[in-house]
Write a structure and sequence with these properties.
alpha/beta, two-stranded antiparallel sheet, 15 helices, 60% helix
Length: 306
């Protein structure tokens, strides 16, 4: 039992009041008023007397935010039992397509590591929007909302991996369910991540977009050496290359990688680059063969024009 309690404590994250504001959209001064007037949350203090909040506080504020946005008065919300709040939130998640509320519900499912709650939110969105629009209008904004806080370490990696793997499973199932009609107009893509790059989720969705539009592709996955990429390009006739670079590289390493790509891809029409590190490289002069993709919507437009 001791080890279980210890493990659960490791999963719990600590948040500043600014973190709560970023997650919930509730201003910090409003949170403090609600603390004093309604005892909505109760901050803890470190040994050095610094205020902080835990997962339970964040989850409660997210739920309060959702109910408040849908017409419930704060004075009434604080009188609801935890089970009553949960029931109302789930009913809203299944009946309401409001994107902000759905994103907040996803955050709660991540904090609780609740797969059933995630499935209900995700599946309801698919019914309302379809799979592709769910990824674009729900999952991408969800990652954007919490991405900065992940980088700051305010979310435990266990929670990040939990939710990322659930989304990864959904994407793979969707890709497997596609029936591609490759024809004379179809183009050929190779998708890969460079050596040392493991952030695959975005690349998997680009794979879905390409396959859905009846193009041929070879998906090589994570941390692919340039030499291995060369072998594929020697064996196959490829029109386009797509890679994502999120993990920061120093300028010399980035330039070396781009130069290697240019030598390797003489017969390729265009090299598509996505990811934060790739966007930073866009501030420098890149050869015309490179095209920085700033969003999945942009790439979808390009695919539809091919």
């Amino acid at each position: 039992m001791y080890y279980l309690i210890y493990a659960l404590k490791l999963i719990m994250a600590n948040y500043s009041i600014k973190d709560l504001e970023n997650f919930t959209g509730i201003k910090a001064h409003t949170i403090r008023i609600w603390e004093k007037r309604y005892n909505v949350v109760e901050p803890k203090r470190t040994e050095t007397n610094i205020r902080y909040y835990d997962d339970e506080d964040l989850k409660k504020l997210l739920n309060v935010s959702i109910l408040n946005r849908h017409g419930y008065k704060i004075s009434n919300i604080v009188e609801f039992s935890n089970s009553s709040i949960t029931d109302k939130i789930l009913n809203l998640a299944q009946s309401n397509s409001n994107a902000e509320s759905q994103i907040e519900n996803l955050v709660v499912s991540m904090i609780e590591m609740d797969e059933n709650k995630f499935d209900k939110i995700f599946n309801t969105s698919i019914i309302n929007l379809g799979f592709e629009e769910t990824i674009l209008k729900l999952i991408y904004p969800f990652f954007e909302k919490i991405g900065i806080l992940w980088q700051l370490g305010t979310i435990n990696p266990a929670q990040e991996h939990f939710i990322s793997n659930l989304i990864r499973q959904k994407l793979i199932v969707a890709i497997d369910g596609l029936v591609t009609n490759v024809n004379q107009k179809s183009k050929c893509f190779v998708l890969y991540l460079p050596e040392g790059e493991f952030h695959e989720l975005g690349l998997i969705f680009y794979q879905y977009l390409i396959k859905k539009r009846n193009h041929k592709l070879y998906y090589l996955g994570q941390t692919v050496p340039v030499e291995a990429l060369k072998e594929v390009l020697m064996l196959k006739e490829v029109d386009y290359l797509f890679t994502s670079i999120i993990t920061p590289m120093n300028d010399d390493k980035m330039e070396c990688h781009f130069n290697e790509l240019l030598k390797t891809t003489e017969n390729i029409k265009k090299i598509f680059l996505s990811g934060h590190a790739a966007e930073e490289a866009a501030n420098k002069d890149l050869p015309d063969k490179f095209h920085i993709i700033k969003s999945a919507l942009e790439f979808r437009t390009i695919l539809d024009s091919l």
